[in-house]
Amino acid sequence: MRHALSRVVPLIVAAALTVAAGTVALVGADLDFFHAVGPGMAVAVLISGLVSVSFVPALVGVLGRAAFWPALPRIGATVRPRRADAGGGRRAMARLLSRRWAAVMAVWAAVWAVVIAALWAAQLVVLIAVLPVAGIRRLDR
């Protein structure tokens, strides 16, 4: 457990600090809503980071193997690595995408999904642009 924590805790702390710094940066936003919510979100992220670093390992230590229920590992059992093609759905998807026409269709579907999402986002920007400007802070103050 200590070995796992020594490898994971720095990652969790770095991620929490990065997200908290990003949300604190919302203080400089022009919209009052983001200006007010940013520090609160940063505090929430820091608290959740502390909980994930302290409470979750303590809970696993108290519960022991029961923390991994419904797939309880047996004591002394050797873990066999799963083959990459063990799942039927994954195997079928790999066979399908290994065919050239299916791969081309998948790429086209992904491209069209991005185009549709971009068009939807552009419509959203237009809708946001017509909102009243009462919530925007004036820069000349």
Summarize the entry for a quick read.
The protein has 141 residues and is mainly alpha-helical. It contains 4 helices and no strands. It is flat, with a radius of gyration of 24 Å.
What can you tell me about this protein's structure?
The radius of gyration is 24 Å and the shape is flat. Helix 1 runs antiparallel to helix 2 (32-63). It folds into 2 domains: 1-69; 90-132. It has helices at 2-24, 32-63, 88-98, 100-129. With 141 residues, it is an all-alpha fold.
Please describe the structure with a list of short key phrases separated by commas or semicolons.
mainly alpha; 141 residues; 4 helices
List the helices and strands and how they pair.
Layout: H1 2-24, H2 32-63, H3 88-98, H4 100-129
Helix pairs in contact: 1-2
Name the average pLDDT: 80
The counted number of beta strands is: 0
Q: Whole-number radius of gyration? A: 24 Å
Specify the biggest β-sheet. Answer: none
Poorly predicted residue ranges:
none
Annotation field: number of helices: 4
| Helix fraction bin | 55-70%
Question: Structural class, from helix and strand content?
Answer: mainly alpha
Please write the string of helix (H) and strand (E) elements. Answer: HHHH
